[in-house]
Amino acid sequence: MGTVTRMELRKISELHPYEHNAKLHPPEQIEKLRRSFREFGMIVPVGIDGQDRVIYGHGRLLAAQAEGWAEVPTVTITDLTEDQRRAFIHADNLLGETGYDKDVLRSEAQALRAAGFDVTLVGFEAAGIKLGDTEAADDALQADHYWETEGVDSEEYQEWLESKQPKKTTDDCYTPVNIFEAVKAWVLQHYDLGTPEVVRPFFPGGDYQQYEYPDGCVVIDNPPFSILSDICRWYQDHGVRFFLFAPGVSLFSIASGTCHYLPVGVQVVYENKAQVNTSFVTNLGEYRIEIAPDLYAVLDKTNDENLRTLVADLPNYDYPDCVAAPARMTKLAKYGQTLKIPEDLCSFTRAMDEQKEAGKAIFGGGFYLAFSAAAEKAAAEKAAAEKAAAHKWKLSAREQQLVAALGQDQRDGAAG
After folding, report:
1. Which of 102, 256, 317, 347 has CA atoms 20 to 30 A from the CA of 196?
2. Which residue ranges form the domains of the chain, and what is each CATH number?
3. What's the per-residue H, E or C state across 350-415?
4. Is 46 helix (H, G, I), strand (E, B) or coil?
5. What does the DSSP assignment read for 297-362?
């Protein structure tokens, strides 16, 4: 029976990997282990025997070497015969290969992601968990049962099918042209880069690692956020200058804080209609964190232009009082109006009959209202409209003093 006799740091150069280790350690696995070490350290030691031969932990040893470590934590295992040692090496590799409860893994991935943790460090993909699945897992399970009972011919089913189609995200890299050009102009001027060749290697089907980067170029682009840390580290390792769009909510965790970060936080609307709290990560400049109000102003202004165009493209429908639509109702709270409609006084609809004939619908869905509820809604909308039209500007402290002083001479004369 094997016995653990001691735990200690040992020089990697003194350890001897087993030459017949059958478990493969491809480059992508070693890179994942390296990222794990940067986040957690090497918590699980390498197992060796009394002759400094590695029994388990070959992959961790390779990753530690790639990180440039001189020493690794080890445990020494004795009292194994030569055949037992040889057999255990394979047993350690093979007996641990079991399945996973994917529902549990999805739930754990969701919880870690919600806490802002970089879940790509954990290796969920190795268990067949697509990280995008975690947000939709419960919805999919519930939907399967629902459509078994409701049937597939309903309008709701068709809408559900559409909702399950792959959604475009920032990984699709569809950045509005004016947004990109505004950011590029700011970068070139702010960092005094002159006129370098600006490259954009992140396009559908592109491979940034195989891209041919011209000498002296700078990458300004909107990369896939799901692998942004890997991208930044690769550029740093290969001496490529970059200025990349990044998610504002998890900005500093990108590449474990080894880049330069510009928190901006503009809710940018991309061409695929995804709205993303956007900031930037770079290896340009000299500051770890830089707040740049002029970059915020440029991005916010350009984004506002796009929003105005988007709003102008939306249909501007008017509805009878007995139909409630979200766009109209949301203005009531803004102007201090209350309205409460009981369940038995309204009925849900997606479109009026006239709209259905024209192939249109109520954006966001709507409700038919009983006449009594419709009258209350109309009164609330009228009061809100009057309040909106009668906006009352307030005097500043300076203006109050100015008004108070007006006619003071006449009042003083009358008093005398």
Report:
1. 256
2. 3-94 (3.90.1530.10), 170-313 (no CATH), 316-416 (no CATH)
3. CCCHHHHHCCCCCCCCEEEECHHHHHHHHHHHHHHHHHHHCCCCCCCHHHHHHHHHCCHHHHHHHH
4. strand
5. HHHHHHHHHHHHHHHHHS------TTEE-HHHHHHHHHTT------GGGEEEESS-HHHHHTT---
Backbone angles phi, psi at 299, to 5 degrees: -65, -45
Pairwise CA distance, residues 390 & 336, whole Å: 14
Amino acid at 309: T
207-257 pLDDT per residue, tens? 899 999 999 999 999 998 888 899 999 999 999 999 999 988 778 888 888
pLDDT (tens digit per residue) in 15-26: 988 877 777 778
Cα–Cα distance measured from residue 69 to residue 67, given in angstroms and rounded to the nearest whole number: 6
CA–CA gap between residue 374 and residue 325 (Å, rounded): 12
Backbone angles phi, psi at 185, to 5 degrees: -60, -40
In sequence order, what are the residues at sequence separation of 6 or more whose Cβ sits closer than 8 angstroms to the Cβ of residue 256?
A: 38, 39, 229
Question: Has residue 151 got a pLDDT over 50?
Answer: no
Q: Report the Cα 278 to chain-centroid distance in Å.
A: 9
Quick: pLDDT tens for 282-313: 999 999 999 999 999 999 999 888 887 765 54
Query: Rg of the Cα trace of the chain?
Result: 31
Q: Are 64 and 35 in contact (CB under 8 A)?
A: no
Its pTM stands at 0.41
